[in-house]
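#lab-general

N.A. 3:47 PM
ok so I finally got the sequence cleaned up, no stray characters, all 459 residues accounted for. can someone with queue access submit it? mine expired

B.Y. 3:52 PM
send it over

N.A. 3:53 PM
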Amino acid sequence: MSSGSRESAGRRPGRVITSVGIVAAALFMASCSSGGAADRVTLTGREFTASSPAGTTTTIRKPPPVDPAWPRWGFTHTGVSANNVTEPFERDVAQTLARTPMPQNQHIMGFGALNPEPRPKEFFWEDLDSRTNLIKRSGGTQIITLCCAPDWMKGGPEGPTTESAWAEHLEDAPYPEHFDDFARLSAAVATKYRDVKYFMVWNELKGFWKDHSRPADFKGYTELYNKVYDAVKAVRPDAKIGGPYIGFDSDKTGESELRGPWGVVNQNALDAFEYWFEHKRGADFIVVDGASPVETHELLPDAFGALGKFGAVTTWLRERTGDLPVWWSEWYFVPENGTTWPESMRLAVQAASMIEFAKSGAATALYWNPQVKEGACGACMWDPRTGALLPTGRLVSDFARWFPAGAELRDVPSSDPRVRVLAQPRRLVAVNTADAEVTTTVDGRSLTLRPYEIRWGDR
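B.Y. 4:20 PM
back already:
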């Protein structure tokens, strides 16, 4: 997540430079492959199964059945968005986004929204109204994250949140004696925004997991979740509610049942998830987030091989939840230690990560958009000056257009495993994961890609 005081808090997106634009070309169909030896692919009923030395997903797993309008590829608004600049700028960005409508997520407090309930039963909806209006104006599917909590619910005073409270206490959890108050606030949100169908409960166990070397207060979170679930469903039986929005952190070593060449998922995260899933009142979808680097900022075995974590976590979740839709509310792939990459490499890694989500059967993936008002912002969705989509925005938009919910994925291997491919019957995308020109055969045709080039094309 992006960091800041008044408007946002949480994970830093990393100092990165986004990749070059996507080059259109005639292409064909898809297979996702790691570096190293070519994968062996066999058809077995619903799935394509294969082995992969780097641990990336070489299996096309059919996602669970969902409504054709189910959210798939989209983004989260953070501290700055198009509604924070000028009316003409907001209009231009909305028109740009409307060309390929996609899911858009907004938190109720922080991340661009002021305190929605500064005093008990005294509501302030202006910021949420502004963001939801932007989403509607741009034709997006609205999603609301029920986080964070007003100050008076977590030991602070009543009234508007102060600068120091934004900086120091935004991520605090409400006190147990105020769980019912937060549930009532959540119900008030769901009642006011009746055209919002999807709600995520809380964010990364904020305040419930202050020391990741120790178990989280998963019992406390689950109690809050259940109260919110019951309160929202009571006023909006049609609402779709998901949790637990846990960050699936991973380490270089350790004891855990979920591990691979990319690292070892923190067992505390798995334990928290298992407890929540067993004791939850209900859920319409599963929400998690995570990063491909391990906690020491290393990428194992490399930037592209580390993406196998996303597929492994998605598979683990689907096996344990009766195949509920899996949402990645955020995902990160650049180490948070000042690492910078060439533009082309950053976007290639992002594209490969989205291929990993698609092939492992993730239902939804939301990009955490680190938008700014001015200056260079390669990782931003749109240009802070003109409102035009930047390469990152075009990438998310292209996935939303060509690989929506229900898209039929087809297996088309690349003769060179350094080129990863994702395809549906009419369109495909190929990603060169090498810092060198690569010539490969895809769908019976020869294809030459520049270093880290992404190429879209018809079949």
